[in-house]
Amino acid sequence: MTPYYDDDVRWKSIALLLFFPIGAALAQENSVAKGWSLHFYGGPSTKVPLVEIIRFSVPTMEPYSILSVGATRALGTSDAGLRWEVETSLTKHLERANLFSLSAAIGARWLRPPWHQVFPGSFYFANGLSLANGEPGVEVEAIGRTNRLLYHIILEYEFRANESSRWSFFFRDHHRSGAYGLFNGITGGSDFLCLGIRRSF
């Protein structure tokens, strides 16, 4: 049985998901450490659900891939060591020539996880929206039907040679889904496991 979602509840939930981090960033901002960065990443899709990826299940790769380019703006850093960031990316879905998606997200980067003195890096979580100009094949194949506009999640671990380096490499899960039915009743989505490079300015 397909769950029913009242439109008012649905869009209030979406607004909470998207705009709560903005309010938190404004409330907790402590530093003026701001700046721009450019990123490029790409990788194959997997049908392993996001929750299983978080649990470190071994994913099986699917014959769909993306390449993405974008920019990030740091908003500031909180007392808790979180840097608030907004980003936008243009993604090329390689399955066919005319399939693209545009995404925008806001999130927080954990700058100093417990192991960062031994292994410099940061963990990043962001959420936002992803708008495709068609239906990605991996989503149609995995969930039967999809929507051009979907919820977007980014999970990323970034590696740096040292804290002063302007170059970094990262591993990222690029996720699109219906957020448990919030978007047109869609209850699944897609994940792309990507490697990327970033240049900070």
Supply database-style keywords:
single chain, 201 residues, alpha+beta, Porin, 8 strands, globular, disordered N terminus
Please describe the topology of this protein:
Elements: H1 7-28, E1 35-46, H2 50-54, E2 61-77, E3 82-93, E4 100-110, E5 121-132, H3 137-143, E6 149-159, E7 167-177, E8 189-200
Antiparallel strand pairs: 1-2, 1-8, 2-3, 3-4, 4-5, 5-6, 6-7, 7-8
Q: What is the number of independent domains?
A: 1
Q: Which CATH architecture is right?
A: Beta Barrel
Amino- and carboxy-terminal Cα gap: 51 Å
Strand order, largest beta sheet = 1-2-3-4-5-6-7-8
What is the fold-level CATH name, i.e. the topology?
A: Porin
Helix content: 10-25%
* Count of individual beta strands: 8
Mean pLDDT: 82
Radius of gyration, CA atoms, in whole angstroms? 17 Å
In the CATH hierarchy, what is the class?
Answer: Mainly Beta
How are helices and strands ordered from N to C? HEHEEEEHEEE
Structural class: alpha+beta
